[in-house]
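<context>
A single protein, sequence plus fold
<entry> Chain with its tokenised backbone below
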Amino acid sequence: MSLYSHYDKAHNHKLNRALHMLAIPVGFSSLVVVWFHPFIALLLIPAAFALAWLGHLIEGNKPAFLSNPAHVFVAPIWLVRRVFGATSKSPDTDKAA
């Protein structure tokens, strides 16, 4: 199973997906905010993780990054694919068979 497929399967519950749609941008925005307000940036990271953990508590599973920390980098790809409607196939199935 690819990283993307594993990440996608760990986010089936609508509320979990919604919380991740909020948590991912909040978490990654801390990378920009740190240049202007380091203290606020440090607060954004635990806020993002809290939102994501709440989603997984609701869904009843563990966050994907606990099984593989690389999922932190898969999260923004998953978010973009969800926002733009590319949810039917994982990136590794887009290749010709």
